[in-house]
Amino acid sequence: MLSEATRNRIVELIDRYPHRRSALLPSLYLVQDEAGYVSEESMAEVGELLRLTPADVKSVASYYTMFFKKPVGRHTIDICTNLSCKARGCDKLVAYVLKKLNVEVGGSTADGRFLVQSVECLGQCERAPMLEVDLEPFGPLVTPESVDAVLDRFS
Fold first, then answer.
1. What is the pTM of this model?
2. Sheet containing 136-138: which strands, arranged edge to edge?
3. Do 94 and 143 belong to one domain?
């Protein structure tokens, strides 16, 4: 169930757009900011507020990878695996992060601290190999110590 504050913020968004449906993406971000993910129940609530069917809301939430449909770690680690990062050793970076955190790609750590994802490109080839934690970029990360320093910031 959404908090009254989040419900009010969603209602306020409606007037900012020419069509109610246009408030859907920012509304889903508000839901995720509050709960950490977008549940079936919250999708139905957003649909009710925006006068959309739950299926309409779910189709949008399912299409975009930035919306989580289940609880995930408090911090999101996105590791770039595109060509530039691959050429500069991202496979070692991925392997080290997964081993250190005892997690698989796409999974959350047992303590709920991190969600680790492999992403196609973070658009910062000059920092390869690199990763982002909660959208904050770090790189180049070429030694285990450099990775440890980043992860320690989010303990």
1. 0.72
2. 114-119, 75-80, 131-133, 136-138
3. yes
Domain that holds residue 93: 75-152
Question: Could you read off the pLDDT of 66-107 as tens digits, one per residue?
Answer: 899 988 899 999 999 999 999 999 999 999 999 999 999 999
Task: Share the mean pLDDT of the chain.
Answer: 95
Distances (CA, A) of 75 to 36, 113, 155: 10, 6, 10
Task: Say if residue 93 is in the same domain as residue 49.
Answer: no
Q: What is the separation, in whole angstroms, between the first and last Cα of the chain?
A: 29
Total number of domains in the chain: 2
* CA atoms of 88 and 66, how far apart (whole Å): 26
With b for 16 or more beta-carbon neighbours within 10 A and e for fewer, the 142-152 pattern comes to eeeeebeebbe
Contact 29, 13 (CB under 8 A): no
Instruction: Determine what percent of the chain is predicted with pLDDT higher than 90.
Output: 92
Q: Of the candidates 63, 86, 107, which is a domain's last residue?
A: 63
Candidates 52, 129, 48, 148; CA nearest to 84 is 129
